[in-house]
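Worked example 2:
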Amino acid sequence: MKVRGVAQLDGLPPLREVIARHGLSARKALGQNFLLDLNLTARIARAAGDLSRADVLEVGPGPGGLTRALLAEGARRVLAVEKDARCLPALAEIAAHYPGRLEVVEGDALEIDVAAQLAPPVKVVANLPYNVGTELLVRWLSPPAWPPFWESMTLMFQREVAERIVAAPGGKAYGRLAVLAQWRARARIVMDLPPEAFTPPPKVRSAVVHLVARAEPLAPADPVVLGRVVAAAFNQRRKMLRAALRGLAPGIKEHLEAAGIAPTQRAEEVSVAGFCALARSLAAGEG
């Protein structure tokens, strides 16, 4: 049985036609790679789960392929943040097709307080621009208070970044991003996409990561202290931790042992819970 695509379901024109009509060539400076296959955008939208009761935040909608999929899949409301003014007319056409369900905000997602414009529960679903994707993720994982404004995030990254988010201890991909993501969320890769799925095709493969916010972090730790520990440990990941963390506090060897970490271990060998235990020991020492 042939499955109908989003274009057939929503009655809007094919994306290639929209791009040609509005002159929307992807701009490298904005990290743009448009995903034109509406069957793929529908799969991404479905990977986010039930959208009917949620507000959805989308960053970098471009010509609106994923936006259309989110609305077709029943999103209660979509707030789309787009920096490229050229895309606004195309997005306005989608908003007119779905009255009251799509709001488009022109601006930089790094500078806009989106949480104030969304009603819970909130899901973040986006084909993030490559040049700001990691920074946005870190910000969404590091709010002043927890739990965050979002309950889940379904985000597309370069495959290498996706692997770093879900990596387990013991491998080269495991690092600061894995600790930060897995401390406060459950993360898994739900989809792979080849370069030819995009226009223009990037030089790397892409992957979609689904993150669900934990009600409480994996283990207790002061986020500032934990961030300092993890940054120092992975900045010199080839060194033993007794050397890499020497500048953090006097008696770092004793703090490592108190956390159940051998001073001769390297950063990539320590679990998220282990880093949290070390952060607690250091915070107690500072106190």
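The chain is about 35% helix and 15% strand. Residues 1-5 have pLDDT under 50 and may be disordered.
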